[in-house]
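Tokens for chain A. Residues wanted.
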């Protein structure tokens, strides 16, 4: 006779609930899976499917009732871990969007802003264009599949546990956020440099011929030069974006290892060797 106890039911619930929390948190925070254009039903279905696949291979669960306060704390911790992993990839897209904002303001297109459904705010036309370009590059190199692979791997490097994670991982996440500014400036540097030269030339031209209307000819020239430089730099953006995706996924892989270390045994974290699937992205 088959008998099912309350402990078995709690174990089944915990075996699906805790991995599902981390997976859904990453899906909600990642730039591609968490896009507002993706229906919520698709996101939840994907999360449940991944949780059902991952759950049998996850190490032993903590002996905690999922409906107790300790179980709810585990749920909150898993949600924070998933959000941090997805936010690591979102930082890369934020850096690309910042490059577009810098380019737009330099070209004089700062007023040409539209509603962006991804950020639920207003962003410039160049920023949205570069964001779409980064999304296509993300799909072209199969980085979304490698991201899911890193998510599954995190259950081995950082198993579900009732112990609190080491807070040093959040500091590394904050340091990783500096990429928004450094990468944004680097990607927009060709446009900024070209427009700086253009503005200097316009200033010299206006000084030599004061009768010219600088406000009448300056905007069309700077706009045309900016669009021309963007068209010239597009073929060369593939490799920088690909390297950014590689760094972001390596950061996702490194983060669970950092959190799994205790403060008394923690060592300076180093980026792990790129796995074979990441090596194939560079081929």
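Reply:
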């Amino acid at each position: 006779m088959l008998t099912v106890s309350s402990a078995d039911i709690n174990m089944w619930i915990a075996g699906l609930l805790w991995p599902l929390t981390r997976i859904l948190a990453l899906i909600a925070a990642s730039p591609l899976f968490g896009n507002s254009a993706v229906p919520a039903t698709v996101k939840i279905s994907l999360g449940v499917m991944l949780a059902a696949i991952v759950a049998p291979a996850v190490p032993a669960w903590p002996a905690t009732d999922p409906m107790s306060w300790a179980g709810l704390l585990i749920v909150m911790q898993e949600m924070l871990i998933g959000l941090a992993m997805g936010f690591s990839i979102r930082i890369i897209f934020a850096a690309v969007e910042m490059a577009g904002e810098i380019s737009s303001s330099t070209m004089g297109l700062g007023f040409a802003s539209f509603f962006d459904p991804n950020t639920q705010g207003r962003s410039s036309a160049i920023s949205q264009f570069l964001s779409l370009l980064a999304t296509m590059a993300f799909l072209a190199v199969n980085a979304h599949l490698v991201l899911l692979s890193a998510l599954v791997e995190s259950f081995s490097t950082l198993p579900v546990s009732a112990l609190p994670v080491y807070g040093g991982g959040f500091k590394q996440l904050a340091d990783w956020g500096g990429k928004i500014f450094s990468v944004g400036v680097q990607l927009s540097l060709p446009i900024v440099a070209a427009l700086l030269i253009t503005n200097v030339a316009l200033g010299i031209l206006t000084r030599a011929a004061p009768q010219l209307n600088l406000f009448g000819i300056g905007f069309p020239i700077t706009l045309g030069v900016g669009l021309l430089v963007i068209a010239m730099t597009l073929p060369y953006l593939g490799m920088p974006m690909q390297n950014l995706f590689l760094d972001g996924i390596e950061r996702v892989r490194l983060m669970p290892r950092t959190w799994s270390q205790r403060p008394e045994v923690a060592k300076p974290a180093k980026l792990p060797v790129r796995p074979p699937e990441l090596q194939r992205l560079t081929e």
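The chain has one domain: 6-281. The chain has ten helices and two strands.
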